[in-house]
Specification:
Layout: E1 6-12, E2 16-22, E3 28-35, E4 47-48, H1 50-67, E5 75-82, E6 88-91, E7 101-102, H2 110-118, H3 122-129, H4 138-148, H5 152-157, E8 161-164, H6 166-174, E9 181-183, H7 184-187, E10 193-194, E11 199-200, H8 202-208, E12 217-219, E13 222-227, E14 241-247, H9 248-255, E15 264-268, E16 272-277, E17 290-293, E18 305-311, H10 316-323, H11 333-339, E19 348-350, E20 368-370, H12 378-403, E21 415-418, H13 425-435, E22 439-442, H14 447-459, E23 475-479, H15 485-501
Parallel strand pairs: 1-5, 5-14, 9-12, 15-21, 21-22
Antiparallel strand pairs: 1-2, 2-3, 4-7, 6-8, 10-11, 13-14, 15-16, 16-18, 17-18, 19-20, 22-23
């Protein structure tokens, strides 16, 4: 068996709970995963059973240790990363939830958000939080729960209820109800947290009528969040420290070792999530992006900041080729099919199945395939699909660079990538060609969980400092750009023109 120290990372996601045991070199020792039910009470509503979130996460933690032939005595620390914005409330005495968790995807509070916009409150909220007024974030979800669960407002004001994002709920249960805490990265996604003061904000709490008594304490992402209650993961003799917590995208940014202003990572999943570290400057976006706190890996320094933007349809366009058009049997086929032709033969695919995000922000836009001829084949459409992912991500990077132009010492040198779709070599080469800089794919693409493990390892002295981590994240492959800038700009301009034609 490879010697320790080992770090257990809990990765609580939207569709599954996962647990990964990492070695000191950043490699994965063992894993476990359990999917859970998505609850859709009404169109646009998405909920999770909080008890299932906790139970599935505990089961995977135990299973990952067992599969690795380990006990709690072999583990130095626990790190947690989680789906962000998902909102829970529970009774402090009983520990029981009052309602299902309202998931970040849930849109039930959009009317409330529209009212806030019409009242002219969005500029002030953005000034304090870095966020847009949107049902995506936690505050309006919490307000809905307090309004619709009988007696909840009175209980909250009496200090009987606890609010939290998923990290707080897991820590509460892991510590046997002893700790009600969160970290700065998760707090900065609630619409209740002032990212400039790194504190819950009285003005925002008054606006959303949220009693301060129900809020968790906010700690740096690298902190001692508590100890796992004896007996949960072992025979009762080892109280494992919880040494690191961060929201999933900030955790992935740290897991990619993006620690300097201008460091950028892009996660290629169903959509694409791109984050740029902006150092100690919270950038006010003029291009539809949002600002949040980065994972605070040094508890003795102020939290850094990130710019974030999303591509709504990334890898999902490949799923659409498979499940919608049924022109491929499996997602794995698309790379070879797209690589069988030198280009898309003039085909442009705009995957605006749910509008386009930043920098367009055209929610009502619908998708299209343009440039079809008798010579068009499935291979050309497949290549256009991959191009659409890389092009949208390039547009997002350009928006970030425009927003961050005033930052001193900003130097975007490369793009780090993770997520399932980054295994597609052609897609990564197209990405490098379009952005005109190297694309770096790490050996371990489990960077979300790795970020949590790194935080916990720093807190427990497994790592000395953040720079020490660079030796622990090997680059599996570097994709160097091959195209001229004229070639790249021509394709970007063609796609942009086609997208605007759909508006």
């Amino acid at each position: 068996m490879t010697p320790g120290p080992y770090i257990l990372a809990l990765d609580q996601g939207t569709t599954s709970s996962r647990a990964l045991v990492f070695r000191k070199d950043g490699s994965v020792h063992s894993t476990a995963q359990q999917e859970f039910e998505q609850i859709y009470p009404q169109p646009g509503w998405v909920e999770h059973d909080p008890r299932v979130l906790w139970d599935s996460q505990l089961r995977t933690a135990r299973e990952a240790l067992s599969r690795g032939g380990l006990t709690a005595a072999d583990v130095r620390a626990v790190g947690i990363t989680n789906q962000r914005e998902t909102t829970l409330i529970w009774n402090r005495k009983t520990g029981l939830p009052l309602h299902n968790a309202i998931v970040w995807q849930d849109r039930r509070t959009e009317p409330q958000c529209e009212t806030l916009r019409q009242q002219g409150l969005e500029p002030r909220i953005r000034e304090l939080t870095g966020l847009r007024v949107d049902a995506y974030f936690s505050a309006t979800k919490l307000r809905w729960l307090l309004d619709h669960v009988e007696g909840a407002q009175a209980q909250a004001e009496a200090g009987e209820l606890a609010f939290g994002t998923v990290d707080s709920w897991l820590i509460w249960n892991l510590t046997g109800g002893k700790r009600h805490v969160t970290d700065v990265s998760n707090a900065s996604r609630t619409l209740l947290f002032n990212i400039h003061t790194a504190q819950w904000d009285d003005e925002l709490l008054a606006l959303f009528r949220v009693p301060r008594a129900m809020l968790p304490d906010v700690l740096p992402s690298q902190s001692l969040f508590g100890h796992v209650a004896p007996g949960l993961l072992d025979d009762g003799r080892h109280a494992l420290p919880i040494g690191g917590v961060a929201g999933d995208q900030q955790s992935a940014l740290l897991g990619q070792l993006c620690l300097r202003p201008g460091d950028v990572k892009n996660t290629y999943g169903t959509g694409c999530f791109m984050l740029m570290h902006t150092g100690q400057t919270a950038v006010a976006s003029e291009n539809g992006l949002i600002a949040s706190c980065a994972a605070q890996h040094d508890p003795h320094s102020p939290p850094g900041y990130v710019l974030e933007g999303s591509v709504f349809i990334g890898g999902a366009v490949v799923q659409w080729l498979r499940d919608g058009l049924k022109v491929i049997q499996s997602s794995a086929e698309v790379e070879a099919l797209a690589a069988s032709v030198p280009d898309s033969n003039g085909v442009t695919l705009i995957p605006a199945f749910s509008g386009l995000g930043a920098p367009y922000w055209l929610p009502d836009l619908r998708g299209s395939i343009q440039g079809l001829t008798r010579g068009t084949t499935v291979a050309h459409i497949s290549r256009a699909a991959l191009e659409s992912i890389a092009i949208q991500s390039t547009m997002l990077l350009h928006a970030m660079q425009r927003d961050a132009h005033a930052l001193t010492n900003l130097n975007v040198e490369s793009l780090r990538v993770d997520g399932g779709a980054c295994a597609n070599n052609l897609l990564m080469q197209l990405q490098a060609d379009l952005i005109g800089m190297p694309v770096l794919r790490p050996r371990t693409i489990e960077t979300t969980a790795l970020g949590a493990a790194l935080l916990a390892g720093l807190q427990q002295g497994v790592f000395h400092d953040a720079e020490d981590l660079r030796d622990n994240l090997a680059i599996e492959r570097t994709f160097e750009p091959r195209w001229s800038r004229d070639q790249a700009e021509t394709l970007l301009h063609t796609w942009d023109r086609a997208a605007r034609r759909c508006a």
